[in-house]
Amino acid sequence: MEDIIVSTSGPLKIAEIKLLRARFDHETVKEWVSHWESNEISTAMASVEKVESILERIEEDERIILSEFAAIGGRADGENIRKSLTLRGHNDVSRTMKSLANKGLILPLVMDENNISLSELIHKPTFFHREFAIAATVLTAVVSDERIGANIETREDLEPQQKDDAKQMALNFALLHHGLKSKKLSLTKQDLPNRRSVQTLAEKLWVPGSGNLTLSNDTELSDFSFLVAILFGMELISIESSEISAHNGEAVFTPAHFVEGFLTTEWWNENRRGGVIQNTASSLPALRRYVLSVFTRIETEQWISIETLVRYCLAVDRAFVEHALQGTEMPMEKFVKKWVKAMHLLGGIEISSDDNQDFIRKKVEEESEIHKSFVPQPNGEISVFFDPLHVSQFQELLNFAEISDRQEKTIIFALNSQSMQLGFGGGLSDKTMEAYLSEHSVTPIPETIRFQISDGYRVHKQHTIYRHGQLIRCRDYDNLDMALGQLKHENPDAIIVHLSSDTVFVSGIDLNGMTRLFSDPVRIDQELSGPCFKFSDTALKATYDPFRANISTSAMVQNITEFDKKTRSVVFDPDKINANFDGFDDLIAFLEPRTENGVPAEQRVAFRNALTGGTSAQFRDDITILWIEDEVLADALYELDSLSKVLVRLGPYAFEVDSALKDKVGKELKRLNIEMDNE
Amino acid sequence: MEDLPVISEGVALLICETPSLLEEALVKIDLSHIPHHRINPKAILVPEAFAETLSELLRKQGVYPRVEG
Predict the structure, then answer these.
(1) For position B1, what pLDDT does the model report?
(2) N or C: which end of chain A has fewer CB within 10 A?
(3) Of A519, A354, A517, A382, which Cα lies nearest the Cα of A440?
């Protein structure tokens, strides 16, 4: 049957209903007109009196559905209407919707196949997966009714539990992420965290309700693997060769991020016990998201029981739930209970209980202000109180202080030299550290802590690495001075480190900018050195210009030669060469591009001799040379078994013969009719 | 050989407060796999690609260098 409806939204007009006439079966027609043969059903539907008289006879449940259609303009997807009413606390409305369809009060706009009757269509499982519309007259008749409100069992008189849990969890995640940045977590062959590797990571973690994680039993191991799984979901860690490590860079630890990590992670399985950390790639993440979707669409802000949530999850899409749980042997009740526990721990929902029954509520987002919550002590400890704490506060503190104790309401951080050095190494300075502590501390920072920080920074400054820069070498001091003066003028933030009278290190300016500062042309030294060696007549000795060498070359020159600065000459040391190079060829490959006109033959001989410890040479008079003037003949002779054993080929025409075998070779050649000219 | 100013690009520098601090650091770490050049008693140069490796080696030995640039 063709799609014959012209309009795309709103209720059906009489002309459209006329076109639908063929879709009405006996039962529908009976509702509106007295005879099956009558074609006047559309006229009946256009009659306000007739519509009102029919609506007077319908059930309350049916009225709810019609008012839902009316509320959204007279046309809607059947499945959406069904779900929406279910989530507003009305019992499963499938049967009622089918009854309305039978009566012609809601009309399916698209049939599945040709010639299918309405009564057949109603029994199909896909019946609701299509658009339905009501007649314009029906819409007018019910639109005056109020939309029937929600009918959900809720509680208003409950208080949420444990408000600080989310802060404890945020601290856990920050600690775990911080720990995994500096130390990888190895897994055993059974995908369990390696005990030694996990100990230091877990000892400062705290699970609300359980306290410090000692990993002494399956539950605690399971809690630990849950935390790791969430970090996987938040894409803050990754695994390679059974080792888990954290990505560098900043991470944000808020309940919204934890919830997203929980919904996404494939490294957690609600049905698993113990501490296995394994990617399960199951349908459970989709089910987690489904439960959240049902929960957020339930039209109430009040407390609902977990049983209610389970009931709604099953009512909205039982087929999906059953499919997702297939093979897990886990009932939906158990899954939802685990979901509630996890979501509460992560700060996604609020939980309360009454009469041994648990209730949950959507989290009321409060914009928490940042209050001062640190109390620095003269002994270098900083007590941090949870109540006024904002989760973002301790993230920075973790970068330069260690947790020495953790209780339900307080954490004690300790400043020690190593933790401070880590903080300085991460880019903090004494000033930023002090300013941060002052900003968040209730009491003034004790002098002892100020001293500890400034002393730590003094030690830290003893070693400095400048990561990017250029080395400038210039024998003309005046020229160098002028260029640097200009640089300071143009770019006051550039870093200039004087290394000697003719050498400086500069950072914070690009190559073009630097080149421009010199009035003379400049030689740019990049990957490879220019020719910096020039060999003299003396074996293993060369003049060397350090200004033309790059760092790798300079480093190697330091390793394999004695350098005389005054004469700018180097003497190569064979023992050091053997220690740094893989033989003669390796050395020549290093020297050749760095030497003006290449390494001379005399020096090659000298190097070869020096590296091999001297090679002897001798004149031999026990050898005779056999010369065959025809190269083709020479080739053929060399293939003969009798000759190839006694001849050593020296070239196309020449063979070496042991003088003692000379006669034997002569006889063989004679046998082959080859005349010897010099016999 | 020419005497033009030379600019070597892509260089990182480790500089210590005193020569003995550098000596101490060089004893602690194994630089055999990093091309390096001791340019003066307090400083060594490495190609900038090795700056992070150098800093990592130092950190492993409990020396936390200030990293700039």
Answers:
(1) 43
(2) C
(3) A382
A209 and A336 in a single domain? The answer is: yes
Specify whether A223 is located in the same domain as A253. yes
- Burial pattern A375-398, b for ≥16 Cβ within 10 A else e, equals ebeeebbbbbebebbebebbbbbb
CB A309 within 8 A of CB A336: yes
Residues A244 and A123 in one domain: no
Q: At what angle do helices A60-71 and A136-143 cross, to 10 degrees?
A: 100
Using CA coordinates, name the residue in chain A closest to B51: A467
Range of the domain at A570: 533-612
Q: Chain A residue closest to B9 (CA)? A: A470
A379 and A338 share a domain?
A: no
Question: How far A509 CA lies from chain B's nearest CA (Å)?
Answer: 10
Query: Is the ipTM reported for this complex over the cut 0.90?
Result: yes
Q: Cβ of B9 and A470 within 8 Å?
A: yes
Q: Report the distance separating Cα B7 and Cα A528, nearest Å.
A: 13
How many domains would you assign to chain A? Answer: 6
C-alpha A14/C-alpha A20 separation (Å) is: 10
Q: What is the pLDDT of residues A26-53, one digit of tens each?
A: 666 666 666 555 456 777 777 778 788 8
Q: pTM value?
A: 0.61
pLDDT digits (tens, 9 = 90+) for B21-38: 999 999 999 887 788 888
- Interchain pair B3, A476: CB under 8 A: yes
Q: What pLDDT does residue A552 have? A: 75
